[in-house]
DNA sequence: TATTGTTATACTCTATAACTATA
DNA sequence: TATAGTTATAGAGTATAACAATA
């Protein structure tokens, strides 16, 4: 495979779209969606934060995050508390149930993908692992970056 | 990064969801969506096929592919012709315009991702390239596999 | 006036169920 | 009866625009 960035971006895009389609589709039995899980993972990793910061970390617009937070609040997985000094802001944090669900999903989720990956030899798995680490750094914004007004 | 398949599947899922979100969101200026592009890429690579086969190749259900094909037909990018011997079937093929658009997009699309990848050193890019090849094989079904009745 | 968050609204993508036409 | 495709319908995910509350 070429390492020309342009061609690589094309190939990567098409592969990602197809894999993600399957990942979302095959979670019908799961308790929460990938979108919800992604938000929870960020809260588990980085701790409580405002909806605006969470939206920025997740690369979605604030209204989109409002909806995700609402669904997670309804499910009792996150809690909203007033900001101590700024009345406009809100702090979103994982509840015990949210943290428990995250741990549980981390151990049992994505069976389909797990099976596929397990069928690879260890070299290939290591290659994917390295690529994941590189890609994650590539798309993780610095903490607190606002999304508004891009 | 670990090479345990389960942990790797978890990490990979979260990274893919976030990257794909950005890929879709940043195509506002593009002429066609990633879903449409993916279908066109399959037709460009594998040639004309029935809607059912295209759905299977793309890992979507037939009604979903019906809509994608309808939008591409409206845009003049694919053409539908009757199957020569089976009146129930249809053959979907790229038009000249569709092939031209695919070539064009292959050279100019995903600028955002291209820039990010260009900022990496060559080793990292090669790692991602290797991973893409592995992942593509992992999710590409054999030609002609039906989706129905899974 | 600027910032934070929410509400209102709309579009894309995808699915399942039911229907039509052909084999 | 079985298969290929489409239509009808619904739900998730995301966006932009407009609004309310607070700084």
Automatic annotation (TrEMBL), chains A, B:
The HTH marR-type domain, residue ranges: 9-140
InterPro entries attached to this UniProt entry: HTH-type_Bedaq_tolerance, HTH_MarR-typ, WH-like_DNA-bd_sf, WH_DNA-bd_sf
Gene Ontology terms for molecular function: DNA-binding transcription factor activity
Protein name in UniProt: MarR family transcriptional regulator
Species annotation: Rhodococcus rhodnii
UniProt lineage: Bacteria, Bacillati, Actinomycetota, Actinomycetes, Mycobacteriales
């Amino acid at each position: 495979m070429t390492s020309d960035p342009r061609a690589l971006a094309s190939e990567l895009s098409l592969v990602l779209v197809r894999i993600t389609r399957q990942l979302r589709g095959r979670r019908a039995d799961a308790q929460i969606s990938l979108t919800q899980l992604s938000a929870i993972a960020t809260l588990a990793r980085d701790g409580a934060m405002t909806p605006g910061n969470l939206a920025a970390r997740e690369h979605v617009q604030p209204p989109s995050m409002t909806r995700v937070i609402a669904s997670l609040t309804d499910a009792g997985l996150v809690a909203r508390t007033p900001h101590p000094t700024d009345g406009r802001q809100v702090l979103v944090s994982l509840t015990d149930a949210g943290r428990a669900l995250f741990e549980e999903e981390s151990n049992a989720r994505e069976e389909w993908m797990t099976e596929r990956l397990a069928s690879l030899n260890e070299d290939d798995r290591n290659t994917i692992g390295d690529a994941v680490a590189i890609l994650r750094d590539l798309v993780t914004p610095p903490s607190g970056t606002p999304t508004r007004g891009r």
